Amino acid sequence: MNAKQKMRHILDTLAEMFPDAHCELNHSNPFELTIAVLMSAQCTDEMVNKVTANLFQKYKQPEDYVAVPLEELEQDIRRIGLFRSKASNIQKLCRILIDKYDGETPSTHEQLVELPGVGRKTANVVMSNAFNVPAIAVDTHVERVSKRLRVAKSDDSVLEVEKKLMKLVPKDEWTLTHHRLIFFGRYHCKAQNPQCEVCPLLDMCNEGKQRMKPGLNKKTVKRVAK
Predict the structure, then answer these.
(1) pTM to 2 decimals?
(2) How far is residue 181's CA from residue 11's CA, in Å, rounded to a whole number?
(3) b/e string for 21-35 if b means 16 or more Cβ within 10 A?
(4) Is 121 a catalytic residue?
(5) pLDDT tens readout for residues 1-14
(6) Which of 19, 94, 111, 224 has the smallest number of Cβ neighbours within 10 A?
């Protein structure tokens, strides 16, 4: 089985496991999605959704975010990790949207990554989910799963993982693959206590095979995972 055949097997298996995988960040437009993804760094989607439930009622457009003192916005998102720096980036981002884009969220990757707090991953999520442009955003779940299934090497950078996935996955499946890899990593192939004993992709995972060996100790698993 060559690399593309292996990837096809992985994609088909994930499709069976998570046919309805989707973006779990609640939003109603590209601007809200950008804010939500910005806040999701080092924070769960579940917590972001709890905060944005009220946030998106209070703040409808970029002008609303810059109209309040920074301290007020900080309080509104204080349950989010790194809330002070994120509040600052949100206000800076909104000011740029107002001054440069007439309050609209830009629709190109190059423009998005220039916004404060918006990195490559965030831009990819916005492009694929808000503007229907195929993209694979590599978060911690996608990176972990790709390395465990040996789609990428254990020492590959996030960008290298993204490039390998883009090469192996058909372009029209990039966005859906991103969601399915996240669901697989979030609900099945977890960082701690992955469900190796019922995993249909166990034969492709060296770490999983090691975990399933009788009498395995945690130190051995850690060495395999590196």
Answers:
(1) 0.87
(2) 9
(3) bebbbebeebbbbbb
(4) yes
(5) 899 999 999 999 99
(6) 19
- 76, 86, 139, 147: which is the annotated catalytic residue? 139
Question: CA-CA distance, 202 to 62, in Å (whole number)?
Answer: 47
CA torsion sign for 141, 143, 145, 146 is positive
Q: What's the pLDDT at 214?
A: 76
Q: Which of 20, 64, 92, 121 is catalytic?
A: 121
Question: Can you tell me the distance from the alpha carbon of 48 to that of 39, in angstroms, rounded to the nearest whole number?
Answer: 7
* Cβ-based neighbours of 205, under 8 Å, separated by 6 or more: 148, 149, 150, 196, 199
- Residue 221: predicted pLDDT: 47
Phi-psi region of 104 (alpha: psi -120 to 50; beta: other; left: phi over 0): beta
